[in-house]
Amino acid sequence: MSSDQPFITDESQVVTETRDARMTGQGDRFNSRLREAFGSSPFILTKFDKFLNWCRGSSMFMLQFGIACCSIEMMHTYAVKHDLDRFGSGVPRASPRQADVMIVPGTIVSKFAPRMKRVYDQMPEPKFVVGMGSCTISGGPFQEGYNVIKGAEEVIPIDIHVPGCPPRPEALVYGVVKLQERVANGEASPVTVKPYELEEFSDLERDELVDKLADQIDEDELVMRYNFADSP
Amino acid sequence: MSLERPDTTDDAAIERTPDELEALLGDLVVKRDDHLNAPGFVIRPDTVQETLSILKEQAGYDHLSVVSAQEYENRYESIYHLKKFDDPTQEVSVVVPADKDDPVSESAEPVFRTADWHEREAYDLIGIEYDDHPDLRRILLPETWQGHPLSMDYDKDRPQIATLPEHANPLQEHYKDSESDTMFLNIGPHHPATHGVLHLKTVLDGEQVVDVEPDIGYLHRCEEQMAQAGTYRHQIMPYPDRWDYISAGLLNEWAYARAAEDLAEIEVPEYAQVIRTMGAEMCRIAAHMLALATFALDVNGDFTATFMYAINDRERVQDLLEDLTGQRLMFNYFRLGGVVWDLPEPREEFFSKTRDFLDQLPESVEEYHNLVTSNEIFQMRTIDTGVLPPDVAKDYGATGPVARGSGVDYDLRRDDPYGYYDELDWDVVTEEGCDNFSRLLVRMREVEESAKIIEQCVDLLEDWPEDERNIQANVPRTLRPDDDAEIYRAVEGAKGELGIYIRSDGTDKPGRFKIRSPCFSNLQTLPEMANGEYIPDVIAALGSLDIVLGEVDR
């Protein structure tokens, strides 16, 4: 190779070899499953939505969101032994603005629910939620607590529930992979009714409690109202 | 020998009999109300400060463990559980009844700084008001909560409102103080460095912290209510696992087991005690490993390798614990009077697995020293930051590695022995540095001490005669301790003194169940450590406290 043209490669050589390799199946480097699906052609014909869903499902950014006991098992799921990243979904992002998936790992209590709703709202669409552990299903062992929200679904919609107290990392991996599958097939994001919306204080129906707190709370302040009597 | 206390010649360390104490307090004592663990003196609600300062200054009771409050049919009551840092077996309870219609009691905050948060909690959950308290507002529940949930007439079904004022733009005018040019900064409740859901209200002047106020209660899961609704024998034991959930499950279970066993006078077989000791120390290693992992991450985001290494070691301990208990995290292994089952069969395999782990541990600890403690960046960030002088630590009731990192030689495993600890050879680790670095060093050296304890336990268990392997004492199917028996018992958890106060009411469920959480007291020291430091040092100080929010909020 002459020194005045350092980066010239013999193009015909490379292209031919690559194409040969594709057609004959030689050279593992090019033989991904994707390659197999494409066949010898470098083009694919698919629906744009389907392609995008496949992209979404194959690369999910998790929100780094620790609440309670389950977050310890969640950390283990991200870390060496279980390594969620193997499935293309193990990069925890500290900011909700960069995250696709929120794993809710723990008990939601009255003071935290509005904050969680806020974090969920800050995530860009499309967003998915994995509820980890019994507390996010029903309040779990703390269901009777005076301060405990009876399941995270009271506050935000949840796509996958992983039961357990806490679920083992393997269970969480299974849940996340299940979510990826559903996302890739365009099945995710069920619409659920959210009983506890985050509202401005002035929008709340005037009742005894609202009247009582009227002089303490700013009209613009966001509030969440809990009807514990109607909770499951 | 390592288990002997250093000699103290101080007058305050002299043990006084209950009658001598009563004479010392004189007219302040209205009557006696002895608890199972300590003499109790009933005093008038307006003489709290006077009584406590006599006990603190003249009798040497310098450790206010916990303030437990409760409501009776005819009165409210706050109990101040006092101890000595030099000898925690010397205890005294100061019982302060308050009027049923107008529950007001004098605050102990001027005498013990730690009473600040404890009394706020009592106000929040029970509804007792404390005169002379600097800042009496709700601590665990939202500011707008209606009613006091552990009081007798609380209606669980009434609607409640929780507010979220944090949505405002922090750079808006009202977040700035126009005169001093400070800035208000929210850290948390959702933030990777807060180790869970803690909210720090920070006021900054430039990059320096002028004031930091921890705002807790984002994980208040009503643990005390849960325990009060469960029966002694089986229904309470699963909950302690979930207080300090960083794998410290067995340590927490021991706190409940110890209190309830002493209350019901259950004798635990020696063999079970050895298993308990071994399991508890495994939990301590797991907990300290995570403390190390997250602390390194807090100090410098580039320490992800340390995080992975430490998690790897945790996985090894958790494997052992899973073999022993059948669970990775929430063990539910202790029972009143023993443990639920014997060591896993084949025993030799378990022992050799444990020994393998212990054999490679010195090497990993060495690796952490290479990676972390001898790292220059790490040292620059942690040495002489977050300084907590020993007298301040004592005033706030700090215990565990936080107190020992400030040179306070206080470890309940040695000072108030339980389990099999006093038969074994190990050392209490203290460091004199009082800074973030010392607290980490204490944890790392404690890991080595725990390994020593486990090794001795394995030796003992291996040679234990086959026919004496008694894992469970005879415990009645339904436990009904005597009516109005009261006890406060503590063990050394991973984070410090984890205590339980139980009052029985003659039924099979506790009348009042109060948890003394070490993290709750330790977290109170954060403003002392952080004010005047730079904002990254606050994060380092918080990491070195190694709080776990499940235990702070309960």
UniProtKB/TrEMBL annotation, chain A:
Keywords carried by this UniProt record: 4Fe-4S, Electron transport, Iron, Iron-sulfur, Metal-binding, NAD, Oxidoreductase, Transport
Single annotated GO MF: 4 iron, 4 sulfur cluster binding
Signal peptide: none
SUPFAM superfamilies documented for this protein: HydA/Nqo6-like
Tree of life domain: Archaea
Cofactor: [4Fe-4S] cluster
Transmembrane parts of this sequence: none
Positions of the NADH:ubiquinone oxidoreductase-like 20kDa subunit domain: 69-179
Family designation: Belongs to the complex I 20 kDa subunit family.
UniProt name for this protein: NADH-quinone oxidoreductase subunit B
UniProtKB/TrEMBL annotation, chain B:
Catalytic activity, as annotated: a quinone + NADH + 5 H(+)(in) = a quinol + NAD(+) + 4 H(+)(out)
Main location class: membrane
Compartments where found: Cell membrane
Record-annotated membrane-spanning stretches: none
Membrane topology type: Peripheral membrane protein
Domain of life of the native organism: Archaea
Keyword terms of this UniProt record: Cell membrane, Membrane, Multifunctional enzyme, NAD, Transport
Domain NADH:ubiquinone oxidoreductase 30kDa subunit: 42-157
The keyword Transcription belongs to this UniProt entry's keyword annotation: no
A Gene Ontology cellular-component term: plasma membrane
Quaternary state and interactors: NDH-1 is composed of 13 different subunits. Subunits NuoB, CD, E, F, and G constitute the peripheral sector of the complex.
Family affiliation: In the C-terminal section; belongs to the complex I 49 kDa subunit family.
Entries under PANTHER family matching the protein: NADH DEHYDROGENASE [UBIQUINONE] IRON-SULFUR PROTEIN 2, MITOCHONDRIAL, NADH-UBIQUINONE OXIDOREDUCTASE 49 KDA SUBUNIT
Protein's recorded name: NADH-quinone oxidoreductase subunit D
Native species: Halorubrum yunnanense
